[in-house]
Write a structure and sequence with these properties.
Length: 393
């Protein structure tokens, strides 16, 4: 009887709140202002009622969400309804952190994550970072961080948990295909300074490792190719395994180093003004034979470069099928320094192949992944073999 009484009071109070809002809504009229509202008046009334119920009955309402938190939560829900993991609302603090990351330095564990079929997956660890050294691999599913189960959580919230001050520890539990039990990684956060390109010579072959696509990448690649020329390189192996991508203009600049003009990538969106085609400039390394290494951790900008090289018959792709992240996100800045990343188009390779959700198939499929001992790196050894055959022709 007591429970029925409590429920009845809740219904009565809820009806009272709704009636009060309805009266004020009627007084406002349905003129010009109504056409500016993001939802119908009825739906706005329901939202107002939901907030009133939280403020009135939520047990911790005194310390609960303020106006800004309510608003940001509503924005996240609105954008999430698009049902696209890459279309997302970003609060001011997070947007500032992501801008810093694009500049090439940030704090954390050194791995990029994404959402696929409701799972939080590692796209790729960054070479030389805590995640990479511990053995985290592309497509590992993160299921637990410390004692918190993160299954079903928003990707942005997972990133916030993973990040923290340098020299603090965090335990990450992952589910890996082929393993019966969860894998535990005890990691120490550190400031991640990203150098995107490094080079070494292997028997007159320039082995160029490209980790990311940031503002500095094109300049670093030019320096590496200049070094390759000074060392008398006869060919180039471009390693983009576990490269999660980055900036589109950086991808075009990288492709331009190997192509003598021509189409790199096109974009097709719902709105015609987002349709575009991006072309290479005259490259500096267009004559040397080229082999490109890719795997399931190669995504986005990596796939753009690899797709252009493959379609233009500029080089040979060796490794495994790529990740398949081929959509274009544009940042729309909002008031109060918040923002929205919205998927506005999908990439197409020069031969009009769609990358998104499909990935690229290599010309020579080889299982494996990057390892410290290059003599045991099956994919790299295959690339060296392909290069030597090309040089013998």
């Amino acid at each position: 009887m007591k429970r029925f009484s409590d429920i009845s009071i809740g219904i009565i109070l809820g009806a009272f709140v709704t009636a009060g809002i309805a009266l004020s809504g009627t007084a406002d009229g349905a003129g010009e202002w109504s056409r500016l509202l993001p939802f119908s008046q009825q739906n706005l009334l329901v939202m107002r009622q939901a907030r009133s119920i939280l403020e009135m009955y939520f047990i911790d309402s005194d310390s609960g969400p303020d106006e800004k938190k309510f608003f940001f939560g509503s924005m996240r829900g609105l954008v999430a309804a698009a049902d696209d993991p890459y279309t997302r609302f970003v609060e001011p603090e997070q947007l500032s952190e992501e801008n810093m990351e694009m500049e090439g330095e940030y704090g954390g564990l050194g791995m990029y994550i994404g959402t696929r079929e409701g799972k939080i997956l590692v796209i790729s660890p960054i070479e030389g970072t805590p995640a990479d050294k511990a053995g985290v691999k592309p497509l590992d599913e993160i299921v637990k961080i410390d004692e918190k189960i993160i299954v079903g959580m928003d990707q942005n919230d997972v990133v916030k948990i993973l990040r923290g001050p340098a020299s603090t520890s965090v335990t990450v539990w992952v589910r890996r295909t082929g393993e019966n039990e969860l894998l535990q990684f005890d990691l120490m956060r550190e400031v991640i300074n990203i150098k995107t390109v490094r080079i070494e010579m292997i028997d007159k072959i320039a082995y160029v490792r490209l980790n990311n696509f940031h503002h500095k990448t094109s300049g670093e690649l030019e320096d590496a190719l200049r070094e390759a020329g000074a060392n008398g390189a006869l060919g180039i192996i471009l390693d983009m395994r576990n490269n999660p991508g980055g900036l589109l203009n950086s991808a075009v600049d990288v492709a331009s180093q190997f192509l003598d003009g021509g189409l790199v990538v096109s974009m097709k969106g719902r709105v015609n003004r987002f349709d575009d085609a991006l072309f290479a400039n005259e490259g500096k390394a267009t004559d040397l034979p080229l082999v490109v290494l890719v795997n399931e951790g190669s995504a986005s900008a990596s796939e753009i470069v690899a797709g252009a090289i493959q379609d233009r018959k500029r080089g040979v792709l060796v490794g495994m099928k790529t990740y398949g992240k081929g959509s274009v996100q544009s940042l729309f800045n909002l008031p109060d320094d918040a923002g929205m990343y919205v998927t506005i188009a999908r990439y197409r390779t020069p031969s009009d192949k769609i990358i998104d959700h499909k990935g690229l198939m290599p010309d020579s499929r080889v299982e494996g992944g990057p390892v410290t001992d290059k003599s045991k790196d099956a994919q790299l050894q295959k690339a060296l073999g392909v290069m030597k055959n090309v040089l013998l022709k």
